[in-house]
Amino acid sequence: MPMHPFRYERRLVLKWGTVITMSTLLSACGTPKEAGEPRPIARLMALGGPMNDPARAKRGVDALHALGFEVDNLSVLARRHSRFAGTIAERAADLNALADPAEAMPELIVATRGGYGAIQVLEHLDFDRLCPRLISSGTVLMGYSDNTAAQLALLTRGGVVSWSGPMLYGDFAAQPTSAFTMNWLRQALAAGRFSLRVDAPQKAAATRLHGTLWGGNLTVLTSLVGTPWLPALSDGILFIEDVGEDVYKADRMLEQLRQAGILSRQRAILFGHFSGQRQDGYDPDGYTMDRLIERVAAQTGVPAFTGLPIGHVADIVPLPIGGQGELIADVDGFTLNVSGAPALKRLPVAWIEPTAASSL
Fold first, then answer.
1. Mind listing the pLDDT tens digit for each residue in 36-82?
2. Domain ranges of the chain
3. Known catalytic residue: 107?
4. Which fold has domain 195-339?
5. Which CATH class name applies to 19-191?
6. Contacts of 247 (CB under 8 A, 6+ apart)
7. Is 339 among the catalytic positions?
8. DSSP character for 68?
9. What digits encode the pLDDT tens for the residues 196-254?
10. 358 in catalytic set
């Protein structure tokens, strides 16, 4: 059955074939579940920074409740050690506890936030037992930013496909929560496949290609070069984003990936938001991301596309790290068909009620 793409324009003018209303997704917070309707479990995972604002953390939990999930592992909300959300052992235990065959598996694992610290836990994760359990149970793991380290390691060590998608502290707790992000979250996690149309003029030639979708935060991805945690993917569709990294810093990281031979092995590079950049005072004409992207494409011979709605911004589309992508591009934009990604094995009741989304 063909997928009908939602559309996204860089100017944030949305052209959706169907709009899923926010009221469908976020009912009143604190609504008790009805008897006989056990909710799917969303387990919290705090691998990086702590949550310093309890009210904000509670808003995130309330939003997950409103979406129809029961939230587990709430102790991470107040957990703190130095600048991290707990000791290395405590943070690793958020995932390692699920390696125990006696432990019930949640439907969803949600990262609390990014920050820094996920790379510290990687050598302490029980990949040999954890990865098969995540795959066989169908548990969906989701996060982005600093969590990119763990997501790429899980893909490398055990073939676990996860979602680069919204997190508790920054996305679910937002005021207001982005209807755009929640609509896409529902589509992605309910079906494991979707089609996205991005309307943003492109300088790359028109093309049609397939590849494994992978990537995430550029800073974190680059930090894994030379470690056992970075997947050795060829013919992939690499997607990247970042925040607070000026153009020359993004240049340095992309140059490292290029010289390491990683970029030239890809079929395409998709650039999301690089937010929080300052103007480059050393270039009177303005050293911009657009110029950098043009140069990277010319040096590597790999087509580069811009305008992907991912990053440290309000409106994001979940993308699978390890799923499959079909990219159909023209000068006016591109369509990304996503498949091969994990879907929730048990949907919240509100998600399976008849809505306009059933026509997708």
1. 578 999 999 999 999 999 999 999 999 999 999 999 999 999 999 99
2. 19-191, 195-339
3. no
4. Glucose Oxidase; domain 1 (3.50.30)
5. alpha beta
6. 274, 277, 280, 287, 288, 289, 292
7. no
8. T
9. 999 999 999 999 999 999 999 999 999 999 999 999 999 999 999 999 999 999 999 99
10. no
